[in-house]
Amino acid sequence: MSGESPEAPDHALYEVLIVKHGTRQTVKSDVFLNFPLYGEPDESIQMDYFFWVIRNAERTVVVDTGYSAHGGEVRARTVLISPPTAFELLGITPDSAPAVIITHAHYDHTGNVDYFDTSEIVLARAEYEFWTGRHASRTQFHHSIEEYDLVQLDRAKAEGRLTLFDSHHTLAPGIEIIQVGGHTPGQSVVRVATSEGTVLLASDSVHFYEEYERDMPFTYVADLVKMYEAFDLIRDMNRSGEADHVVSGHDAETLSRFRAWGADGPFAGLAASIGRIEVQR
């Protein structure tokens, strides 16, 4: 990865929207790998589900697409607002064809990718090759994906809309995608330049802030060493100023760490923002 902040001339600063579309209540022993090793009593924990939007007057980029109605229903996930409804309310329509970054191919990050049926889809090559390879059907991996969503990625590839990258990819000035692995083979994070500093959309390299703050890996992991290394990388980026704001993938405290957005409308209690940009509508 680059050791510098994303290139960001004044016209390439963005607003980052954090949108919560679902939730569930579980326990720590369900989400932290080998939780008894920590010698702590088990307790309840809330797990929220997000997608993210990067936008300014020139472009809009969607980061992950949440879980589909089917993906949420079969896993008993609560839907707070359906991602397609949220996209429409945000003025992000299939016709506008925003670029879509998929940080990894689990069901809660690829559901509704078919909503953007003409968009460029950006994904780490290692992620795509894993889920189209011989291990994807094995139980410990397969439970986390929806076959329909993988078909949509194949469709995008056949249509020339799937951009695969190795290691890192600059989508546009001020938007950099970095493959870190760990949780999945191609798990990626996204760095975004904003007027309030550089934002790191950590996605599921950091499900909960407790993970990287206390070195507690998530229960589902493809490569434990790479997961630990991703924690180290994010801590180093935060200390060095390469990432001023770390946005977790599932922590219920995420929204409270940032400025509430859309408090008087359908996104009340469901969204936060970083960076202030005049967006053309």
UniProtKB/TrEMBL annotation:
It comes from Agreia bicolorata. This is Glyoxylase, beta-lactamase superfamily II. Keywords: Hydrolase, Metal-binding, Zinc. Belongs to the metallo-beta-lactamase superfamily. SMART domains: Lactamase_B (SM00849). The keyword Metal-binding applies. PANTHER family: METALLO-HYDROLASE RV2300C-RELATED (PTHR42978:SF7), QUORUM-QUENCHING LACTONASE YTNP-RELATED-RELATED (PTHR42978). Residues 48-250 form the Metallo-beta-lactamase domain.
